[in-house]
Structures are given as structure tokens and as C-alpha cells.
Amino acid sequence: MRAPHGVTLAQGPTRRNLLTAGAGLGAALLATRSVCAADLPPELAVAVLGFARGAPVREGRVALEIAELVENGNAVPVTVSVSSPMTASDHVVALALFNERNPQRDVFSARLGPRSGRARVSTRIRLATSQKLVAVARMNDGSCWSRSVDVIVTLAACIEGDG
Amino acid sequence: MARTLINLPPAPKQGDVIEVRTLIAHPMESGYRPGADGKVLPRDLIRRFSCLYDDGTSREQVFQAELHAAIAANPYLTFPLLVTGAGTLTLVWEGDNGFTQTESVALRLG
Amino acid sequence: MTCGAWRTRRWGGVLGAAVWLMACASAPAPDTRRSGFDFMSPATQAMQRDDSQNPAMLWVQEGASLWERKAGRSALACADCHAAAASSMRGVASRYPAFDTASQQPLTLGQRINQCRERRQQAGVLVPESLAWLGLESFVAMQSRGLPMDPPVDARLAPFVQRGAQLFEQRMGQLDLSCAQCHTQRAGQRLGGSVIPQAHATGYPIYRLEWQGMGSLQRRIRNCMTGVRAEPFAFGGPEMVALELYLAVRARGLAVETPAVRP
Predict the structure, then answer these.
(1) Which of A68, A69, A71 would you mutate first to test chain C, the one with the most C CBs within 10 A?
(2) Second label for C237, Cα 20 to 30 Å away, from A92, B77, C182, C226?
(3) What is the reported pTM?
(4) Which of C57, C62, C212 sits opposite B23 (nearest CB)?
(5) Considering just the CA atoms, what is the radius of gyration of chain C in Å?
């Protein structure tokens, strides 16, 4: 199994062996900024890496449109889009949105394809508190791209009772 | 029968990429919210949404989404669609407690 | 003519000052009233502006279908008497609350709809805050969207308007706060993370993000009263109706926005 950038394997081959074996690939990966475990809290990293199915996750190509200051976390408009021609040979297969501080990491995921024409999904989400959001896209060649945004929420949504 | 609202551009042309906008009335009870008596209200969510497109030539699923508790109540969801022919869109929402709602929308070309 | 324009003319000290004062006194004061819409974030404003995004439209849709549905012993639908709501109901909501001769009291739009259901359709009354109540009220009120609030200038309403004004100014609850202290004196300032709006009830029934659903003006007022730890006025009670009437008069001229979205 390839070790995604930033994650250390606890067992199996020694770190030195792995680093040597993956040196060429690793050098290429280090050249582009990755959004993996090094930058994210552990649970959020696990969710993102799970969606990526082992592929390295690079920052770019994904746009995450959301207000940076939210007045009510109960219904926050968000749009995830990916720059992609959406042709049979080059398209987004799936995209997903993850959060940092709600009770659960998942927000939504979607499957797209050439018949989508473009990669752009909008919805409204709940944010329990100020936190980081990460949108991830998986392409038909297995590569993964992402974007993260920090959002400030002035009122909690999920956990409060009825007013 | 949950109330739904579906919006498409009125007269798309062959080859256009359109945005389909959907709204459905549903509490999306997260399972974390206490009710008036202090007890947590049971989770009741829409979990899946899909769109089947019959363009006269084929009938294929062109979009699918998995929704979680973080989706706001009365879910608003938009998705893109490449217009390949006049026909019918079949939109299906499914969720907890056997929830299922199907809407058929005609796609007419301009 | 602005005061500034007068100042540039050389009319000599005292005479100039006197004329300047008169000009300022007779120039109309700018209307500083602003809808709650103006205090919202751009994202929430966008939700209200676009009918294909506005979750309140799910209730309006229900109202539209109820409008066509035959009800009660009369087997009459609203449409049977009122035809197309877009024409017959245009301007109606903007002229409520109105005086009801039979009960000698003001009537809100919701109460008027129930009056119709009971007397004309011989159907059961709609339960306040129910889907049917909010659906029909938002559907009817939406037909006045964009028109200025225009409650009737009726001498018989005067004592009720006064009562509403009194309630608006009256300190209440354990926090001992009046509506006016927040919404007139401190509008634009912040309560916690939220900006305090001026409380012009132009968009009701609203989809309130905090409720994750639709609700009436009276529900919103009850929320505020709970907020200051006061015993909320009863739905449909005389205090609520007086307050609704006063708020409509206070917002006279501002555009109806139903169905609004509010945080």
C-alpha cells in the first residue's frame, strides 16, 4: 500500500525502506502542496483520505464557495465546483464535503460523470460552530484534489435545542 | 408525500449544460437535537438522492448524492446536467423510516 | 433644497441663519427605516431573493394547492369565490390588520382567513402555525409582495394601535426590556453575534433559519418574549393582535416581502 504523504506507517516495511522506494514518487508529491494529515485534525484527515482511496490529495482545481462569516449555522449555502472538461477521458467521478467540528465529519458526497456537463453542486449545510471545511474531488484517473476554507459561525446549529 | 419544488431552465437547447434545482420539505432531524422535554429527538434523515435521465435514447442515472445529518432541513440540492435530448427526469429521495419520494419532470427543449 | 445649498448663499449672518433654520425644518426628514432584509448577510439575502432557492416556497406551494381545494360543507374552494389569487388577493395582505365590524376588533390576515373558512366554506378553522395556516397565509400575503404596507387608516383602529404602541414601549420579563429598547434605540448594534434589526414585520410568515421552518409574526414575538424571560402573549390574543397592528402601522410604506427568510 502506498503511504500517503504525511502519514507514517506503524508496521510493515521500515520507514527507511519506504522512503527509499517511494523517493521518486515522493519527490514529485512534495513538489505540490498536499492537504493531508499534516494540515488537518486526525478525524478530518481520515475522512478525506478514506474518500481519496489511498491516492494523494493535492490542493487545487476545487472551489468551495461559502460565506466566511455565517450569521446562522442552521442553513449555510455552499457550492462545490471543480474545473474539469467533464469528457469521457477527463472528468470528476465524485466529490465530497467534510467538516471539522460537527458531531460527524461527513456532509455530503455526490457522483458525477460526463453526462453532468460540469462539476458543480450546491446545497445548504449545518455548521455547529466555527470550523474548517474540506471539499474533495476524485477524478476518473484516480487522482484527488481538494480545497479547504475556515468558516466563522456566530450561532450554533446542530446541538442546541428548540428556541 | 413530501412537498417538492423542482426548477429547470424553461427552454434549454441540445448540448446545453443546465442546473437542476431541487427543494424538498423534510425536517432532516439530526439525532443530536433535544426536544421541548429535553430528550433527544430521534434521527430522521434523507440519505440518498438520485436523478435518472431518459432522453429518448437511453435511461441512465446521471447524478447521485449521499446526504448526512449536516445537510440543512428542507434540503436544497442543485446538480448539473448535459442536455442530450428531450425527455424525462426521475428524481428520487430516500431516507430513514422508509422515506421515499419520486418526482418526474419533463425536460422540453427550446 | 438641502441645508447646504442655503449655506453657500451670502445673505448676511442673522437673516441667513433664520432662513437656513426654516429650510431645514421644512425639508422632509430622510426615512431611516430599514427592513430586516438589509441587516442580513448576503447569503441569506440571496436565499430570499430567489424563489427557486427560498425554502418558504414549499409552504407557498401548499397554500396554492389549498386555494384550489374544496373544503367544508359548502364544498367551496377559495378559488370558487376569489378566482385567481394573483389578481383578487393583490394588495389585500398589505391592508391588514383591518377592523372587523362583527367583533368590533382588529383582525389579522390569518384570523380573516379562518373567518372565511368558518362562515363561507363552513369548514374547520385552521390551527395557528400549522402547515395549512402558514401555507395559505404566505400564499395570500405573497400576492402583495413588493407593494407598500398600508394598514387601513380607520378611527376605530386607533385605540388598538395605541395599545400596541404601549406594549412595544413597555418593559417586560425578568430582563426587564421593552421591544423599543432593542429595536428602536439599539437597532444596528449587536446582541451576541447578531445585528439587532428594526423589527419591521414586512415579510411574515417567514422561513426562520433558527426554526428550520416557517412561522408567523406571533411566533417570532413569542420567541423574543421568552428571550427576555417574560410569559409570552397567547397566540391570537388581544395583545398579539394589538402588537401586529402597531407593527404594521410602524412599517407603513415599507414593501411587503412575504415570504421572507430571516436568521
Answers:
(1) A71
(2) C182
(3) 0.86
(4) C57
(5) 21
Select the residue from C47, C48, C49, C52 to test the B interface by mutation, using most B Cβ atoms within 10 A. C52
| Residues B76, A86: C-beta atoms closer than 8 Å | no
Active-site residue, selected from the candidate residues C3, C179, C182, C224:
C224
For helices C131-142 and C109-119, the axis angle rounded to 10 degrees is: 110
Partners of C195 in the β-ladder: C190
Q: Which residues pair with A135 in a beta bridge?
A: A97, A147
Decide if C116 is catalytic.
no
The sign of the dihedral angle between the CA atoms of C29, C34, C39, C41 is negative
How many Cβ pairs within 8 Å bridge chains A and C?
40
Q: What angle do CA C210, C213, C216 make, to 5 degrees?
A: 90
pLDDT in tens, chain C (263 residues): 444 444 444 545 666 556 566 655 667 788 999 999 999 999 999 999 999 999 999 999 999 999 999 999 999 999 999 999 999 999 999 999 999 998 999 999 999 999 999 999 999 999 999 999 999 999 999 999 999 999 999 999 999 999 999 999 999 999 999 999 999 999 999 887 788 999 999 999 999 999 999 999 999 999 999 989 999 999 999 999 999 999 999 999 999 999 999 99
Distance of CA C6 to the CA centre of its chain: 39
Query: CATH second-level architecture of B4-27+44-107?
Result: Sandwich (2.60)
The DSSP letter of residue B43 is: P
Widest pairwise Cα distance in chain A: 59
Cβ atoms within 10 Å, residue C116: 17
How does DSSP assign chain C, residue by residue?
A: --HHHHHTS---HHHHHHHHHHHHHHSPPP-----GGGGS-HHHHHHHH-TTT-TTHHHHHHHHHHHHS-BTTTTB-HHHHH--HHHHTTTTGGG-SEEETTTTEEE-HHHHHHHHHHHTS--PPPPTTSHHHHHHHHHHHHTTTTSBP-----GGGHHHHHHHHHHHHS-BTTTTB-HHHHHTTSTTSEETTEEP------S-SEEETTTTEEE-HHHHHHHHHHHTT-PPPPTT-HHHHHHHHHHHHHTTTSBP-PSPEE-
CATH number 3.90.45.10 is the correct assignment for the domain at A34-153: no
Residues 6+ apart with CB under 8 A from C260: C36, C37, C48, C56, C202, C203, C204, C206, C207
Q: How much of chain A is helix, strand and coil, in % rounded to 5? A: 20, 35, 45
Q: Domain map of chain A by residue range?
A: 1-31, 34-153
> Where in chain B are the domains?
4-27+44-107
